Amino acid sequence: KNDWDDVFVKQKVFNRLAHLAPALIVFYSLQYIFDAEKLVTFLGNLTQTYMILVVLMVIDSVINALHEIYMKLPISQERNIKGYVQVVKIIFYFIAILLIISILANKTPTALMAGVGAMAAVLMLVFKDTILGFVASIQLSANQMVNVGDWISMPKYNADGDVIDISLNTVKVQNWDKTIATIPTYALVSESFNNWKGMEESGGRRIKRSINIDMNSVCFLDDAQIEKLGKFHLLKDYINTKQKEITEYNKSLNLGEGTVTNGRKMTNLGTFRKYLEEYLLHHPMISNEMTFLVRHLQPTDKGLPVEIYVFSKDQAWANYEAIQADIFDHTLAILPEFDLHVFQNPTGSDFLKLAE
Length: 356
Known about the structure:
alpha+beta, Alpha-Beta Plaits, 3-stranded antiparallel beta sheet
């Protein structure tokens, strides 16, 4: 069972169609009611104009009804046809206006079209945005660049949110702060924008954030530190394996345990990085099937950035932020266990300590 008939009633198709019958009766009765030929012609022209307007409204309602029915189909989520619908309406409006003018001016539509051809340049200028929007709508739809419901961001137009409407001339975006941003349709083709649909379909959302390590706190691990860190569940296997590897390497070069320059030793920063990898690998909300990195970035005067580049399994904004915050809460709290310090600019309390 479908509700197509309800849609046609809702769009007032039959209500507007009912106005056509009285107009037809009046039009064909005029010659029997009035004797004056000029009066019959004048009233006939008015009646014909009214009938054209009624037919135009009926066509408009039918198009709206068909569009509403289409929007209930699954394919409407991938193919938005609102731009095409508006173009079809414009064509019918143009034809109706042409017919009305031809009736009132007592000229054939062909003769009027010849005059319209001479005004083509003016019409092109007047309807420039509409023409650009029509071409852009075709490209957006054909290439599936954006659809209603997609999350897009376009800083130039202060747009960052969900697309709620795509028309011939404009695309409306409801930003996350509930404001509405309006973007010219052709701007989405001629300029760049981000569509986050790929992220939503991928099953993960990227976490890309770094913390700056004070490079003065980076050092080799001594035996006491190795013993302490070896008790960490996430580091136990790594430290045992790494210690054997380093011992064998140093022995192959006949290096004593006290030799630092030529031999290999574990560092607190390298061990910390490995801890982060293991922590994230065992995190239930971090995807192990997508890009997974814990890496050093270029050192700066702000310290050595250690970046976490992973994907969360939950894409919902609030949940994603909670997962990200939880990871960095833990990261900052565990740093002192590795005798590492976060780099930050001096604050008021730091200056007070220096003064003491």
